[in-house]
């Protein structure tokens, strides 16, 4: 991307990890290697293979990105961004390569490039190239459905400071002639607010899964959070068919989208890895000056904390993306294209090993402070008042590093923002040690940026590291801030290490209906036939509210889509009460859109709330639909409360 400079970064690849006791479902990268140059001429003294020689074959001296997707027929598309000719002149906003290479150990070879004439790679998406109007049009994601190919792109209004740029809109272009010509669809667009520049879907990553295309989005630039939308794969060009994840369910209003992961995030790539049964996400965290990786069991999360994929410090290549090759998606080896700014503006192919780790479902980034580089910004941790990182001082509980705060007056805290699921229970843990004169230390969670405290522990003198445990409900919040701090009175300090934040095991959102604030079911709950919410009517099993279905004929049910891991056993349970004339009630799990039933139990008249349990296997699915309903015959009703789905 032209002029998107970041601080120079050392090309020193280090294996760094923090281990927590838990399951071995998560993955971490190690043993990173550069394989070959992908574009441009070799730099002086460079010994990397350069199979494509793009400067002589297609007049490409410099370019970036390299977004790869499976186009079908044994071929892959690779979309690049702003492109210089062999003479160093910026003359194309984007170009597109095709590859059928399946042996990446010796480099990534192009079969051809889309050309406007022989020997010249074509600009596939036109841009005006006028500053403060449309400076460039850059691809950010690609996907193929059937014989139609799609590119998500952004229309850049102008470049700002390093890592910041401003977009007019993002949109989807499509090709029906094998990539030779592309049409920007006139309405498949996400228009930006040109005052706040804050639309959440200006850059994207696509994942095609289970009949949907999932679109992960960030705002323009590199400093936003990561949001999620999805659309049935045959309706990619229908902007009205997109639904946005609001933390618990899918809604039509894109402004209601809540983060699935906290940025600082730029140039993102997301894929599903069948070897590990994990979704993998990569992006540049400019505050950390590193390319990072997250992983998750489902497309909505919970996403792990950041793990360093490509580390950096103050000198080197200036790397800024890691676009994963689909050939990695059933493997423990992850191949990706990385862009660099130094010594030249171009792309290279790298690989890392992916390994089982024991971080499991901890969603804290740098939980033991071991991956904290000595940078001006301590991201993903931030300091209020005075504090920092003890590096190799022997103060850590485990490993070499720990966080600390230290001052003689005022509030001093070390903190981190985390994306959470609203109205969900979490357990926060951390190990804390403090000075002898400390009387007002606090470890807890709050609404970010000085908002109300959700839950905290107060502590005084802790001469040895002592575990702090805080259980809390996230309430309406999709982002919380965890912290450890002291009110200093004289020279006061507190040290923090080995922090974890884990979501409860129940996967059902709004499980007790207390958060449903209307009589009509709202996301994540929805209905078949006639159903709704009893609010403050005294019908609930616990709390004030419960769900119900009621009618005199037909099928009537309450339902919710729940995200699960494939081929795992789950237990679904709920408390249900019915009218005396109910004879044909059903409680169970099935696939979406009235798909096959995975498992259900039939029930008849239940005069009192009765707990029903159903054990099912998720099969090869990432989401299932739980339901409780009845075939009505006369005025028939059921009431439902305290629903749960828990992995066995």
TrEMBL record:
Keywords: Signal. The keyword Signal applies. Pfam families: DUF4185. Residues 51-350 form the DUF4185 domain. InterPro entries: DUF4185. Gene3D superfamilies: Galactose-binding domain-like. Coiled coil: none annotated. Residues 1-26 form the signal peptide. The keyword Ion transport does not apply. This is DUF4185 domain-containing protein.
